């Protein structure tokens, strides 16, 4: 494993490039923000909202999870005079704090629709996705993108205001401002699995289907990243949202460095842990990199923090016990650990003379190479 010389991201991260100086593309993308004309971008946003203004209805859909970014998106839309319809695709294991933060978004003064898919089918897909692509959150990553777009088409709302552009934030080569089907297929994290591959009754997976190109064209729906138009900073968004009632966790989230993000789903610990098993970095690394780039953490400090927090076996997440999440999927701990081991990249972790993964008494692995 090779690490960026400026942040602590390893070269195992998909879609991340390193230049001759050993600096990753996410750090380079971030540096280039200095040259962005943010005043011009803001004017572009105001013009775009003016073009989509609906004097008798909603101007846009804001997909919301209740998190710090979606709270921030709603606040900015309201400040710009827009009338958003907020739409949530219910998470797979809603947490108490996540539900309170949804209530907080409603209390900002917006209409709100929540779509909950069939939980019996969903748990089958969670299990299947964990086994087949090593990502329990695969169905959630499908429906957070399909549900708001389906509603936009159905309700004739032409604009969808998404949050950050993950490619711009975390590295990758997409620098535009629209989220469409092509973006979703390339960058949506669907890992080569398609809804058709699930082999399920199409009537049970209606909400997992993206509208057709004909439907989208007829409805004239455009999706934009707010992070293209306004300088994006997760921590700044959290502070701004907190000042408007957004609630943070009482301590750093398990496997993370901070208490202000990914609070809404008890399954996220498993999602993050599989990223660690496949690529050798976890959520703590993502956050450390964000803070290093913004001058809030020194690289040498970050190395120690990441080593302490990254990739811990996900016994709990935002206080939700692993056993509860596994119970939903009708999966025992031994079976879960076997799936973990199957998805672990053995080049990245310490093994014994027989090639077996070395774990401490809590089930934690040790990486072969740290920054
Ligand atoms: Zn970097």
Could you explain the architecture of this structure?
It is a single chain. The strands form three sheets. Strands 1-2-3 form a three-stranded parallel β-sheet. A hairpin with a 2-residue loop joins strand 6 and strand 7. The longest helix has 18 residues. The chain starts with 24 loop residues before the first helix and ends in a 28-residue tail after the last helix. It has 371 residues and is mostly helical. The site of zinc ion has 8 residues, from helix 1.
Strands, count: 7
Percent helix, as a range, is 40-55%
Largest sheet, in brief, is: 3 strands, parallel
Outline type = globular
Which sequence of strands runs across the widest sheet? 1-2-3
How is this fold's topology laid out?
Layout: H1 25-31, H2 38-51, E1 60-63, H3 68-79, E2 84-89, H4 96-107, E3 111-115, H5 119-133, H6 138-155, E4 159-162, H7 166-170, H8 181-187, H9 213-219, E5 222-225, H10 226-229, H11 234-242, H12 268-279, H13 283-293, H14 299-309, E6 316-317, E7 320-321, H15 322-328, H16 333-343
Parallel strand pairs: 1-2, 2-3, 4-5
Antiparallel strand pairs: 6-7
The site of zinc ion has 8 residues, from helix 1.
């Amino acid at each position: 494993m090779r690490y960026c010389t400026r942040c602590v991201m390893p070269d195992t991260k998909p879609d991340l490039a390193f230049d001759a100086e050993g600096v990753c593309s996410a750090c380079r993308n971030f540096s280039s923000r200095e040259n962005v004309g943010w005043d011009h971008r803001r004017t572009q946003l105001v013009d775009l909202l003016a073009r989509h203004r609906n004097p008798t209805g909603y101007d846009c859909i804001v997909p919301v999870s209740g998190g710090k970014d979606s709270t921030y998106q709603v606040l900015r839309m309201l400040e710009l005079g827009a009338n958003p319809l907020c739409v949530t695709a219910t998470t797979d294991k809603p947490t108490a704090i996540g539900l309170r933060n949804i209530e907080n978004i409603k209390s900002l003064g917006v209409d709100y629709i929540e779509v909950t898919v069939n939980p019996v089918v969903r748990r089958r897909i969670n299990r299947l996705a964990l086994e087949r692509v090593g990502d329990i959150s695969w169905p959630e990553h499908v429906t957070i993108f399909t549900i708001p777009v389906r509603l936009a088409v159905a309700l004739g709302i032409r604009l969808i205001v998404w949050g950050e552009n993950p490619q711009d934030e975390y590295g990758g080569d997409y620098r535009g401002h629209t989220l469409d089907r092509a973006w979703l297929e390339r960058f949506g994290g669907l890992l080569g699995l398609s809804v058709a591959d699930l082999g399920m009754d199409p009537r049970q997976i209606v909400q997992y289907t993206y509208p057709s190109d004909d439907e989208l064209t007829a409805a004239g729906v455009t999706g934009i990243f707010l992070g293209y138009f306004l300088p994006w900073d997760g921590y700044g968004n959290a502070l701004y949202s907190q000042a408007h009632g957004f609630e943070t966790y009482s301590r750093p989230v398990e496997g993370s460095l901070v208490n202000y993000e990914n609070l809404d789903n008890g399954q996220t610990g498993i999602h993050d842990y599989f990223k660690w098993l496949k690529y050798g970095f976890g959520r703590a690394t993502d956050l450390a990199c964000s803070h290093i780039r913004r001058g809030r953490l020194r690289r040498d400090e970050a190395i120690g923090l990441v080593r302490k927090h990254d990739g811990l076996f996900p016994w709990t997440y935002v206080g939700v016990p692993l056993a509860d999440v596994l119970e939903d999927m009708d999966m025992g701990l031994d079976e879960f650990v076997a799936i973990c081991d199957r998805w672990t990249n053995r080049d990245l972790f310490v093994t014994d003379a027989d090639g077996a993964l070395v774990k401490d008494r809590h089930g934690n692995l040790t990486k072969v190479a740290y920054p």
